[in-house]
Predict the 3D structure of the following.
Amino acid sequence: MQKHFVHDLAYYTFDALRATPDITHAVSTRHGGISASPFDSLNLSRFVGDADANVATNWARLHAALALDATATVDASQAQADHVALVDARHRGTRIQNVDALITRTPNLPLLLRFADCVPILFYDPVQRAVGIAHAGWRGTVLHIATRTVQALQAAFGTRPRDLIVGIAPSIGACCYQIGDEVIARVRQTFANADALLIAQPGGTTHFDLWQANAAQLRALGVEQIEIAGLCTAHHTAEFFSYRAERGSTGRFGAVIALRVGNLE
Ligand SMILES: [Zn+2]
């Protein structure tokens, strides 16, 4: 990934996605907003205890930095499940309830989800000119939200997995993501390669590799172009919000993707 600054607002982009002029995408950081601790400063969630006016200003600043229309963005009330919404111009500026992934091929309709350790996954199909974004915590990961998002792109737009360019953004890494017996059992039920995803620690605890678990789902469908940011939010709380590292008292950063150029049909 590469880090960018617009005044004091910092965000990251994926190398593989930055190469195309057809989309705008970004993963925001905590820097560049107006919220006070523990939401300092670019918190994008109204549901964590921050003042609505601060969140609105932060939202506007991020969109201005990316030259995106803040009134057009479609977001979602994320439910830690596996539902994917197909959105178009009718959804402009709305929040979709209880979904953890959004897909579209409507130009200038930014898709934005919020994060503090869960895995943001960005999708771009340069052939069918479609984009998507997913939110994968451990629940979404064992429910195959990444798989469901690719399947939704296939069904709606005829996307071929081998054409997809996918970015797995900063989120909690296997270095820090300790899980308990319930989650271990779910991972073992879900993944044939669970032994590679569950990493035994010297003290007897177990960590879960969410990045590789999601990448494995994508590869199983034939997705070949996957860029993993490799940045752990719990390790980098000066840069990102981390629910785990900050014991639940923190803000949310955003991942956003928008198609700039419409279909040629
Ligand atoms: Zn870490």
User: Anything to note?
Assistant: The first strand starts at residue 2 and ends at 6. Residues 173, 175-176, 232, 234-235 surround zinc ion (CB under 6 Å). The domain at 2-175+222-259 is CATH 3.60.140.10 (CNF1/YfiH-like putative cysteine hydrolases).
